[in-house]
Amino acid sequence: MNRMNILQQNLFNLLTEFDDICKKYDITYFLAAGTALGAVRHHRFLPWDDDMDLYITRDNWNKLRNVLETEENVLPEGRSFVYHENTKYYRNPIPRYVNNETTTIYKTQSLAGKACGQHLELLILDPMPKDEEEQQEFIDLLRVYTEILSPFFVVCRNLSLEEWEEHYKLYQEYYERAEKEGDEKILQELSDKLQNYSLEESERYCMRWGNVIYTYNKEHLEESRIGLFEGREFPISKYAETMLRIAYGDSWMYVPEVEDQVVRSPITNLSMPFKEYTSRYLEKINREEVLKKYRILKHGNANMFYKRRKVDYLVAKINVNVESKEIVKNLNKNEEYLCSLLEEKDYESILVEFNDFCNLQLRRDVKKYNIFVPISKRNLKTLLLCFIEKGQYFDGNRYLKIYKDQGETLDDELIEIENLINICRELSIARYDKKDVGLVEELIEKYEESYSDLLDIYRAKIWVMENKAMNEADYKEIDELCGKALELYPFDGEIMAIQAKAKLDCGKKEEAMNLYNKAIYNTRNGIIWQKVEDEVGISRTDIERDLIEGLEDEN
To answer: Which residues 6+ apart lie within 8 Å of 224 measured at CB?
Structure first.
């Protein structure tokens, strides 16, 4: 069933066009970011997705650029390729393949004009040096390059206060030179430095983007495999899951709640060429003057940024101290009760008790400055163990990391909890990233004796059994182990889905279908959602899409 909205259908058409061009000219690329996530997790667009990203290595981008600049009739009618070198006011390190017959205008690209149609974005990957000091210099220069390139906003605004001080010094040095020598000369100098490393002398690629620095092992971009996306095959990295873990963290396979799904809001008109819009304002302004004013304003913002951040940090810290008092007081008063809830495996009640703490700890300003809401060690341990036993080690790791970043020393119990988190992570990587049955079996043998009742051990054992199952007797054994696991963890949709398949293969269709329907509402694991859809056609992804569209209609 095709559930693409009009925006997604247009993007998909652009992707098929681009794929045809790359096949014709022997250019290698990979689906990237949310597009790769959609291909791996759902075989289609994420329900809320409104853009499309592709990875392309520097060599392949140079090859494509040469084709675009020397060959005739490369692009279909009504299409263009926009990048900084061919579009004076396009101040973005990411090239775009643009549908000129549509409109998608972001404020930061409105001055360019030519970049304002619906588009694909190409994330260029440059080889980076092997030496650690040289790697840091490379990253420092990349940040400055993107800061000088974009005059519209402070690019590296998410750096820590300490990192920002060093970044600003280097940025100021190059900004002053750019004032005297011109932006283009400085940008070219920086770009030449960033492209100064051959693939042979490198072990890693770095993505040409300043907001967040993503680096990948060279092998991640050397081999591709076929990824199914909206019914058509496209190239994804052989190591796509590993790259998703790098970009999105250990919970990459889980679908965020609707309120946490990231949606951008450009000016959009899919039936009108962007020139109908851009001509209305571009003809009335002096772009050189506007660009100059943007640069001055941005430099002023950058100059004040550290002082503002320092004030913001102090305000956030004061707010946490004030707002946490009652939260911490209540949690401290209930330490014994919370421990008893953990013993009873009443995880939902624990999370209700910790709800105010979690909301404050994960609030944007508190996360931004890595401030720890000062709960007791005993309560912290209870919360971390709750997440681990609930099968959400990655959430436990998030809170433990914030605690460790305060310079706190871990006691023996917290060291053991950290060890549990690492075990769960090892099992997750072996199952989801490497899909290596033998490795998972080795890890089970290594840890089962000490942690036999750990949910992630059960998940791993059942996963291995399903991958090796050959007959009805095997599925009966899976059914039995799933039943035992669900007695301990009756909420786990991941195990429910595997038990449903076992029951189906044992001829218990009605039981299986009931369990499948229950499974998709007891997990947000997108891999499990897709498993259920592939096996019996029940689409939790489509249910999610209906929910999103309903909320959009309400708004």
So the answer is: 28, 30, 235, 236, 237, 238
Q: If residue 253 lies in a helix (H) or strand (E), which one and from where to where?
A: none
- CA gap 322, 258 in Å, rounded: 30
Residue carrying the six token digits 């498993």: 531
Helix, strand, or coil here: 120? Answer: strand
Q: How far apart are CA 38 and CA 49, in angstroms?
A: 9
Q: What is the dihedral of CA 306, 135, 142, 19, to 10 degrees?
A: -140
Cα 169 to Cα 166: distance, rounded to the nearest angstrom: 5
pLDDT of residue 552: 58
DSSP H or E run through 204 = strand 204-207
Backbone angles phi, psi at 142, to 5 degrees: -60, -40
What is the C-alpha separation between 93 and 58, in angstroms, rounded? 12
Q: How do 118-128 and 204-207 pair as beta strands?
A: antiparallel
**What's the confidence (pLDDT) of residue 555?**
53
Exposure of 418 by Cβ count < 10 A (0-12 exposed, 13-18 middle, 19+ buried)? middle
b/e code 340-379 from CB counts within 10 Å (16+ = b): ebbeeeebeebbebbebbbebbebeebeebebbbebeeeb
Q: By C-alpha distance, which of 260, 232, 361, 332 is closest to 48?
A: 260
- Pair 116, 100: CB distance under 8 Å: no
- Tell me the pLDDT tens digit for each residue of 473-520: 999 999 999 999 999 999 999 999 999 999 999 999 999 999 999 999
Structure tokens at 185: 């000369």
Alpha helix stretches (DSSP H) within 472-539: 472-488, 493-505, 509-520, 526-536
Q: Which two tokens stand for residue 167?
A: 């970044």
Residue 138 CA: distances (Å) to CA of 79, 143, 255: 34, 9, 34
Q: What pLDDT, on the 0 to 100 scale, is given for residue 453?
A: 92
The parts of the chain modelled with pLDDT lower than 50 are 1
User: Containing H/E element for 310?
Assistant: helix 287-333
First-to-final CA distance of the chain: 26
